[in-house]
Amino acid sequence: MGRTLVYPKVEKNTVHRKSDRASYDLHTIHSIINTTPVLHVSFNSSDPADPFPTILPMIGTMGSYEHPSADLNDPMDCYLHGYVSSGIMKQARSNPEKGLPITVAATKVDGIVLSLTPNSHSYNYRSAVLFGYGSLVEDIEEKIWAMKLVTNSVVPGRWENSRSPPDGAEMASTTILKVKIVNGSGKIRIGGPGDEKKDTEREDVVESVWTGVVPIYETVGEPVRGGAGRVEKVPEHITSFRGEVNETNEEYARTAAAAINPAGKGY
């Protein structure tokens, strides 16, 4: 059997509610991060007069520049793509020693769980939260490597099938934030409704209410040509990406809907 690495459980990342749905497994958490198109990244403002944390939608992916052969089972950093003058990059620049404390969150909804009573309705979902310290990538080779990693995380092979590497102006305007992960956790719900006995024993309720799961999954649509490119035929790296994503997402959502839910009712 292969090894299974987990993030250490501390108070910050321990799942308390529905703890049987929790996962601290690196592969599970990294997979959720890498298959979520938009991550939500939060950090505290440097202005003491501002009481609100900032939350930004960002594109990012897991990777290891020091160990390029690492897979999702291994410790990794989270690379986030941003603009040079954005607030998060400015704050990271002002915290060069340890880095800017950052939380990265990702959520995928796999189904709507419809129960006998509204209080027991739920979602099938996969969620992950990472905690770490973000620093700007200053090394040019690592920056280009990370830009390629992020680009290909959106559509595999896109870096190689577009004008690359970036020119000087693009390199100057783009910043990569490398988040050294301290710990993290995931939470997953699968299965159908979990109704209470007081409802399942009522004939008037079970005979009048439809229950089950409506699967939800992200679908990559038919490519629409536009812009300055003159190539009419959709290239293979896009068509294969579309087919693989659609098949994988639909299969997971339908499998999750039919699974036995070990965690019981509710969220």
Query: How much beta, percentage-wise?
Result: 25-35%
Shape: globular
> What's the CATH topology name?
Pnp Oxidase, Chain A
Distance between the amino and carboxyl termini: 33 Å
The biggest beta sheet, please?
A: 6 strands, antiparallel, barrel
Oligomer: single chain
Rg from alpha-carbon coordinates: 21 Å
Task: Give the H and E element order.
Answer: EHEEEHEEHHEHHEH
- Summed up, the helix count is 7
Which ranges are low-confidence, i.e. pLDDT below 50, for 5 or more consecutive residues?
none
Total beta strand runs: 8
CATH domain class name: Mainly Beta
CATH level-four homologous superfamily name: Electron Transport, Fmn-binding Protein, Chain A
Helix- and strand-based class?
alpha+beta
Number of domains: 1
